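In the previous chapter we treated chains in isolation. Here, by contrast, the input contains two separate entities that must be folded as one system, with a combined length of 827 residues.
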Amino acid sequence: MKRFVARRLVFLVFVGLAVSTLVFFFVHLIPGDPVEVMLGETAQAADKAALRAQLGLDRPLLEQYTGFLHNLLRGDLGYSFYTRRPVTQVVLSRLPATAELAGAAILVAILIALPAGILSAVRPYSGFDHASMLASLLGVSMPTFWLGPLLILLFSIRLDWFPVSGREGISSLVLPALTLGAALAAILSRMTRSAMLEVIREEYITAGRAKGLGEKTVILKHALRNALIPILTVLGLQIGALLSGTVVTEKVFAWPGIGRLLVDGIEARDYPLVQGCVLAISFTYVLVNLITDLLYAAVDPRIRFD
Amino acid sequence: MKRLSLLLLAAILPVVACGGAQRPGADTIVVAIEQDPGTLDPRLATTAYASRLSALVFNGLVKLDRDGRLVPDLAERFESPDPKTYIFHLRHGVRFHDGRPLTSADVAFTVRSILDPALKSPRREDFAKVVAVETPDPFTIIFHLSRPFSPFLTAARTGVVPQGLGGKSLADFSRAPIGTGPFRFKMWEQNARVLLDAHPDYFAGAPKILHAIFKIIPNDTTRVLELRKGSVDLLQNAVPAYAVKSLRQDPGVEIVERPGMNFSYLGFNLEDPILRKREVRSAIAHAIDRKAIIDHVLEGLATPAQGLLAPSNWAYTNEVETYEHDPAKARALLDAAGFPDPDGSGPRPRFSLTYKTSTSKERVSIGETIVQSLREAGIEVTLRSLEFGTLYADVNKGNFQVYGLTWVGVTDPDILYYAFHSNSVPPDGANRGRYRNPRLDAILDRAREITDEKERKKLYAEAQRILAHDLPYVPLWYSTDVAAMRRRIVGYEVYPSGDFTGLLTARIDPGATARAAGRDR
């Protein structure tokens, strides 16, 4: 177990290296000039050249890359071109908002998807099953930038229950979490349904019922637990989609998270900031998948990591 | 289980829903802005919102009044005994927000810090001609320039910071500044909101609104919904045209319009073998139906433009060539230029062009309309909508045939030097179309060096005539400045280019909403 975790953490280093290499070259190769953004339109060519030299942007790309790696190994992500603050500090200050939003979205998704999926599986092809599968089709197909304003119109303007946007108190978390969680809930409920359907046909379920166990125990304890592995897998994989979904959701709800930081960084060609954001997002993704793998063992004791 | 979680949800919703009804208090205005200002230090401001918000916290030596004229601000008066010397006499009794009085040493510190390359100030070029700064007494400051440079007065609008930044580091100061302005800094949550409070000792009288909250809301629809709900009081130039129409129906919202000066245009690459011919550019100008675009895409929120300088600019002239919508004339001009239509009104074009513009929804629909108009004249146009950074890089590199952009916040006519002088080809300026005209160059050089406003006005009038004839740009329109506000905000005036100066005189009257509703029905 320990060896497994250690191995995965070493793997994390390589993923980090690969991701940062890709990001470094992508942001440097897209057209656009950070110096132009920093100094404004009226700056003179000489001033622009001086700043470019100071930031090291006039050196060959490969040399800039080795410098970047060197600093990265010391844990130094550099300074944001635009706000002139340390990237690590900026990214860390925005991470909690995104973590809060993503966490709440997962919670929303689980609270909707598990009951809906289980009920659908217990009574397949019933009215409820059809309704919930239709709802999940809608959930998957509705884009965030459309669902968000719809929820605002209903819950904020018409019913006046929640604020329109911003991050002030728990009430402002509800609508963005619903918006972001909807697609995940849809996929997850479909997955839960099919995983449960498969398990319910197993002989040990019949055995459990024959033994006289209550239906609740059979479904929730014996069936659900065995169906959890594929559900967890999908959940782990969907975290990536969730993190990219925050980019749009954060914009619609003016949520000050890392997704908007990344978009602003790209628009300003703020290379260090973009690198910092992408690294943070990809590390989160890899870590979540590591946790998913560890959860497999907790759910199914037959799984060992040695 | 399902029932349980539904019950849970039903129990949670009303509990967390308590914050939904929050509205701003009776002494607080909430303004939604599109972007984080990035910095509040006036010496470092490059974005529109950095300038607009820092203008509330700081004062310059001079400022623009509502008609776009330079008038004294921190300086009580100024004079220019010769074209290379500017003397400013400071107001007495001005205090920074930390209580310290303003002196000429603060002004000298501000200008010297801008000139220091280490600050990387975007204002540095504006002050580059300053060779010496003198402070003979605490209320007099003298600038000596290396050569006559009349746009210097415009640079004197830059906000004055306290000497030594009030003991703060540069990083702290740009995030929690100390100025002399009508509002003092209170709090800033990056990318979420900026809070300002009225400065009770403001020399021109404290604002009536005690607290101003600037909420950063990047999404167009969300900003409009916040206003409709009443959790935001004011949107200024931050409402898409299509939403203004629906806001007009809302009895709780008032729309105030004022002719603006943000200038939209089509820029041509004059090194392109087709576009270098004046007849072609003139044909394009005649082919475009600006009125139709203004009426249908911009919902009437613009006025047709004749050139970069708006009618509100002191140097503006209307005695220039204009190009009315006339497709027949456009076709005739193209025939004369040597581009006959190969199959009359058939599908084959005279020639093809690429038109580059940004990804904004409005720009794309404007682009589509222009493509349609030009097709009727026999010109095939491919519309390419590019992310702004990419568009900007392409345009500066000269990697375009036709592009569409907007000049924002133009006040000094010296902008013509920056946009059309042959010394201003990027990276040295914004002559992106590589327009070169020695006669115009001479006029713009001369206009920089004389201080007599009448003489300058004559020179700039001639420059505008040359540009309207040569058409390095096809002028499209000036966007109307639009403020959409809740009716409880009373006395808010719209200033040029989206400044928030109106907050100084506005007040909040909770009863105004009810009265307005009664009147409207």
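The radius of gyration of chain A is 24 Å. Residues 78 and 87 of chain A are 6 Å apart (CA to CA). Compare these points with the single-chain example from earlier in the chapter.
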